[in-house]
Amino acid sequence: MKKAMMYLLLALGITLVVMFIGGAMVGLIAGFIDGFSGNQVGTTTSMSVMVYAGSASLILLCIILNWVFIKLGFASYTIGRAPKKARWKVYACMIPVFASLAILSNAMPEGEFDFGNSLKDSYAWMRSHFIFSIVILTIVEATGNLIIYGAVLREILDWKHRPFVVIPVYAAIMGLFSVIVTPSPFVAIGFLVAWVEAWIYEYSRSVIPIIIGDIVYWIVTLGMIGTSWGWLAFLPFIVTLPVLLYAIKALEPTKPID
Asked: Is the separation of the CB atoms in 256 and 157 below 8 Å?
């Protein structure tokens, strides 16, 4: 448990340092553009400039986090527990499962919940720069999954292998955190995503299927902006539950033993 806390604090410390330096550099670049254009300092509002500069900082952060956690042996993308045939079955199953979760997250009509203009503008920009956004999100999600699952959750499960207790508690914490960071009309969405990902990691000890699922989630989410299925959005998730159970069953022979 102490190691899990150490991993979290280490990742948080590195993030704060890199973001502080990155924020200073973004401000410097914006000031340079203002001076070069003959504008008053602080008038640069180009979202593209800020996004690209911020993305560069995120990529640098991900490179540093990957290097630290993998180089020092704190985490790995996969332990290689599952057989190759089972791995490909799980990868394929992640596509419909996470697509259904993305549909569910878009279930609330936009008019029924105020997401704030800044969040709407961000999603609109991401949709208009789809490929770039998916690449950045893939790098960020892969790094986050490496730390959260490949280091922190793995250490907790190794410390007290009680997945029926650890995973629901973890999912509840992540669900509450996702609501705080990104307001959502469905509190359960963050819980469901974390719950599915944690069980897949528990059985596979690999973050690769989770990364695949997250990529699918963002592709469907960005593609569905402005649309809503209403309460019918629960239907795809219910239909794909057997697919999730099939993926877990495929990993059954290699799951950790208490």
From this structure: yes
- CA gap 236, 214 in Å, rounded: 17
User: Using CA of residue 151, residue 156, residue 157, residue 158, what is the dihedral sign?
Assistant: positive
Query: For the residues of 221-256, what is the DSSP string, one character each?
Result: HHHTTT---GGGGHHHHHHHHHHHHHHHHHTGGGS-
Three-state DSSP state, 206: strand
Q: How far is CA 18 from CA 6, 15, 106, in A?
A: 18, 5, 32
The angle formed by the CA atoms of residues 176, 241 and 214, to the nearest 5 degrees, is: 55
SS3 content of the chain, % helix, strand, coil (to 5): 80, 0, 20
| pTM for this entry | 0.85
Quick one: DSSP state of residue 72? T
Tokens of 85: 């045939």
For every one of its 258 residues, what pLDDT tens digit does the chain have, with 9 covering 90 and above?
788 889 989 999 999 998 888 777 766 666 666 565 555 544 555 556 677 778 888 999 999 999 999 999 899 898 766 777 788 888 999 999 999 988 887 775 454 444 555 566 677 778 888 899 999 999 999 999 999 999 999 999 888 888 888 999 999 888 887 766 555 555 678 888 899 999 999 888 889 999 999 999 999 988 887 676 767 777 888 888 899 888 888 887 766 655
Token pair listed for 41: 């300092």
For the record, the structure tokens of 96 come out as: 């419909």
**Cα separation of 233 and 247, whole Å?**
22
For residue 255 the two structure tokens come to 């799951």
Length of the chain measured in residues: 258
